[in-house]
Amino acid sequence: MTAATTAISSNSLSNSPNHYQWCSQTSWRSISLPIPKPSCQNLTIAARNRSSSLIPRATGDSLPEPENGGSKKIKTKTKTTAGSTSSDEKSEVVSEVLTEKEQKQKQQRRLELEDVNPVGLGRRSRQLFDEVWRKFSGLGQISRTSLPDERDALDALLIREGPMCEFVIPGAQNTTVLVVGATSKIGRIVVRKLMLRGYTVKALVRKADEEVVEMLPRSVEIVIGDVGEPDSLRAAVQGCNKIIYCATARSTISGDLYRVDNRGVYNLTKAFQDYNNKLAQLRAGKSSKSKLTLAKFKNPESVNGWEVYKGTYFQDVVASKYDGGMDAKFEFTFTGDAVFSGYVFTRGGYVEMSTKLSLPLGCTLDRYEGLVLSVGGNGRAYILILEAGPSADTSQSKLYFARFNTKAGFCRVRVPFSSFRPVKPDDPPLDPFLVHTLTIRFEPRRQKAVEARPGDQKQDPRSFKLILEYIKALPAGQETDFILVSCTGSGIEPNRREQVLKAKRAGEDSLRRSGVGYTIIRPGPLKEEPGGQRALIFDQGNRISQGISCADVADICVKALHDSTARNKSFDVCYEYVADQGKELYELVAHLPDKANNYLTPALSALEKNT
Predict the structure, then answer these.
(1) pLDDT in tens, 17-70
(2) Are strands 482-485 and 518-523 parallel, antiparallel or unpaired?
(3) How many CB atoms lie within 10 A of CB 115?
(4) Nearest to 289 by CA among 566, 479, 475, 417
(5) Model's pTM, two decimal places?
(6) Spatial distance between the Cα atoms of 297 and 373, rounded to a whole number of angstroms
């Protein structure tokens, strides 16, 4: 795989004529938008848009000077004592009129500056949040009640009627996000960014003690559970549309790493899938996340329609010279398993099982993005072959193949349609609409040695055993469903790095194989500093070593929720840096951030999918 890397630059349009005109009359300064917490601590979210983070600040030269040399003193002259009273009255009236006019001018100037100055927006939002938190303190836990009227009133106060309405994302009010690891460095920022944009937020915590409750906003629904205990996750995923996984093991002990970073991801994806399957059953299988079952092996009749073939890549004369024998069978055993097993001792030989696909009326595979297989066995590698073409004339069909590996024991294998390559290089790319035959092939070449379990004998790589549970088609979703925050390994002590990365990569692999739309983010060493201050590098290839702020990682998580380019992608991210001459790792891409500051789409569009 060719590594693709991009960097996003947030430089402002400093070369434009308007820039020089403004600089001659104003001074510039960068700002940050504080988001207060119940404990009155502020969370700084710096604006990533550099062009909007520079604002004009009024100086003495830019303010209009009053007439008469700038003096506001009222001078009157009295010629006689009798006329002094009337003159004083006139001077007082004139003074009041001028003073009133001066106040209106100052008020007008202040309003105009606040209208174009994001600082005013930040100040008003802080005052609004302070007022809301004070009301919460007096009302107790009203925000966690299930009364819809109270929640609607809170949403209207926070989002719809306040100055924060510009941050609202369309569709966020109908989206519930489960944040796992909500009290972590990244999780705390993610929670507040989601609330600011109008999402409904649920936080999964192990213990709801006073310290944890005080770390989270009161409008967050707290769910008690443990990612290492699957039974406790069923209630957590109820009603959730998306998941952001920020949890990480608190120690480098192998047990903690396995429970949180590896098994925890698997347990949560399975609970999320079970919940979506339940919804699909209630909706008569019409859910957008429902998979299409192509084959399910649960009874002896399910193996009917599959045919086993034997063949060789060489001519018969050469094959007979090196013939060592080969055999294969596909049967439903007395233990209730559908098993494809055999051996290939012939040089250049292979065995395969094939079937004609029978799709429901009105269903075609072009609506799906790939296949997922639930299989078990002894960890061999196989080739999945699709035959596409007119079903009435198979002579015009073309073959496409993709290799996949299995593990000793049961696992799920995800094979996207984009990974299939034509057997003949001149053939066009695969069109899933024309697929009519599916084949699973085993050949002894390219087989890797599998670690034998304690007490098991070493097996010959020319023999195989594949247990099939089901074959399904994955729906082609537009957005990601599960965001996993992993790590690159940089900044971890060398003696612990290997075991940490092993657990992290295992969790990533289980997420890719699950069939859920995913986004895996691998940030560099985390820094607790304001985000949006520097450009970011997005890379694939485990080559970055620079750090990144927690706020930037949280911002990427939130933006990836509704970004179609982030679906089914894994990438590394860190601060921009200058590489040594001749060792450049990325190409700088000029980008002018828009009002929404959507830097993620151009950054991820150049990266490869299904990685």
Answers:
(1) 443 333 334 344 444 444 444 443 443 333 343 333 333 333 334 334 444 444
(2) parallel
(3) 9
(4) 475
(5) 0.62
(6) 11
